[in-house]
Specification:
The chain is α/β, with parallel strands linked by helices. The protein has one domain: Alpha/Beta hydrolase fold, catalytic domain (Rossmann fold), CATH 3.40.50.1820. 36% of the residues lie in helices and 16% in strands. It is built from eleven helices and eight strands. An eight-stranded mixed sheet has the order 1-2-4-3-5-6-7-8, sandwiched between helices. Helix 1 crosses helix 11 (275-288) and helix 2 packs across helix 3 (108-118). The chain is globular. The N and C termini lie far apart (43 Å).
Amino acid sequence: MLSLNGQLCSIPSKNGFLCAYVKGQGKPLLLVHTVNAAASAAEVRPIFDLMSQHRTVYAIDLPGYGTSERSDRLYTPRLMTDAILDLSTYIRTQHSDQPIDAMAASLSCEFLARAASEQPTTFNTLSLVSPTGMTGLKLRQAAEGTTYGQNWLWSTLKGPGWGRLLFKGLTRPGVIRYFLNKTWGSRAIDETMYEYAVWATRQPGAEHAPLCFLSAQMFSADITTVYDRLRLPVWMSHGVRGDFVDYRGKERFTGRGNWRFTVFDSGALPYFEDPRAFGKNMLEFMGSSVAM
């Protein structure tokens, strides 16, 4: 079962098999879905379809999710960042080495920002939708590459049956719907995305990445420092409904010429609720942005 209406491609990667959907023609645009118990490229479907009318759009299935490898291993920011960089290398070989516009949502904004901070010439612009690391005013400036990972919790979850039992509980259809309602800030969720999420969580190995997520292995303790290093154009957007509305941390970046901000009357994924308004803002940003 495919999550997007596009060509599914296998991407060269040093960390197991990696897959991405491709659609459209023109300059390259990379989309990165969120990370949760039921994540996949299905979470970027509206903007994938819309932007493919203007660009060649690539939507990754991050390691542990969708059609990419779901093996039993430690899923970390490093693994996710490397996957984005592997796909970016592939994209540039297909587009005469031109830099890439890229968008990520929620926790994956941390992975995309890290990729851009490490290889700034690879990317043209970054669009960060409801990024983590912006909650409250607390700075995350721990040593480079450190995470909030709780190894004892991850080991416990990997114990006989515990993690699988927890994962099954968190991915019951009613629970998936409950969390999507909290993401949207209403019950008017995208039913196609919901149906794919339910299906995806029933696939072999579906629990491994989410258990790392639940034990905080994928949350970067140094992400403020990573965001600080960005010099290319950054567009941050978020909504005002649901559980993800505290973005006081963006105050740190409001005076920087390479950052711009848009607030939508939506939940955490505004491109589902008003894809045309979101797409219009995104196209204008990508077309007019100049690095600092």
